[in-house]
Amino acid sequence: MLKIKNASKIYKLGDVEVPALNNVTLTIKEGEMLCIMGRSGSGKSTLLRILGLIDSPTKGKIYLSGKDVGKLKEKVRSRIRLETMGYVFQEYALLSELTALENVYLPAKMLGRWPKEYKDRAITLLDAVGLLNRMKHLPRQLSGGQQQRVAIARAMVNKPEIIFADEPTANLDSKAGKNVMETLYWLNKNYKTTIVFVSHDESDKKYASRVVRLLDGRIVKRKPI
Ligand SMILES: Nc1ncnc2c1ncn2[C@@H]1O[C@H](COP(=O)(O)OP(=O)(O)OP(=O)(O)O)[C@@H](O)[C@H]1O
Ligand SMILES: [Mg+2]
Fold first, then answer.
1. What's the number of domains the chain is made of?
2. Are the CB atoms for 82 and 161 separated by under 8 Å?
3. Residues with Cβ within 6 A of ligand 1?
4. Residue 81 is part of a domain; what is its CATH number?
5. pLDDT at 172 (0 to 100)
6. Residues 50-66: pLDDT tens digits?
7. Mean pLDDT of 179-201
8. Does residue 35 lie within any of the structural domains?
9. Is the pTM of this model over 0.85?
10. How far apart are the CA of 52 and the centre of ligand 2, in A?
């Protein structure tokens, strides 16, 4: 469903070139739960942002359902992102002035969907992540784990084909982290939503149907020592 071919990313900082991704070819299959692992600086976030159409590779191609989406205008890309992709980041990225419910339905509101429809769906999703009784809370009135589950519900609101999560448990204690991973796992099983997540934690492998490891911007076969 989503494929990158010979993708490289070089960040330019003045005269200095920082290679972050080196000739990566990867196909994301429908319904899978893929884990991207690798040490700090190996290119995991860069790869996730390229797959999620948030960033573009310096070289290489990206295909969504067979269509080359690499060269599309930003306006078209942002529409594809809103309609088919959901994102969960390490730092939750909720809007502080909005309640949990308003945060969840914001991406649907941005697409111009019907309020009645998206409000109902947002409530169903908040229920699914166990936060029905926190609907009216502002982000600062929620624990880190609860905020991350609001972010997961928000990622689901437009019925995405694929969710990207970049170290979604990095800021959480182990219990809240487990809860967040189990929520993602449940979405993958229950809604068949394809999930690509980044993790540092070897024990998160159990949630994945496949693991891809990065080392210095390249995919490697085995866990590096
Ligand atoms: N905006 C940027 N400008 C310049 N260099 C960058 C930028 N973003 C990342 N890099 C560099 O690219 C490389 C890959 O970074 P990336 O953030 O993808 O790593 P990561 O595997 O996600 O690391 P971490 O586990 O610490 O989050 C690193 O060497 C990093 O310093
Ligand atoms: Mg990262």
1. 1
2. no
3. 11, 13, 18, 20, 38, 40-46
4. 3.40.50.300
5. 87
6. 999 999 999 999 999 99
7. 94
8. yes
9. yes
10. 14
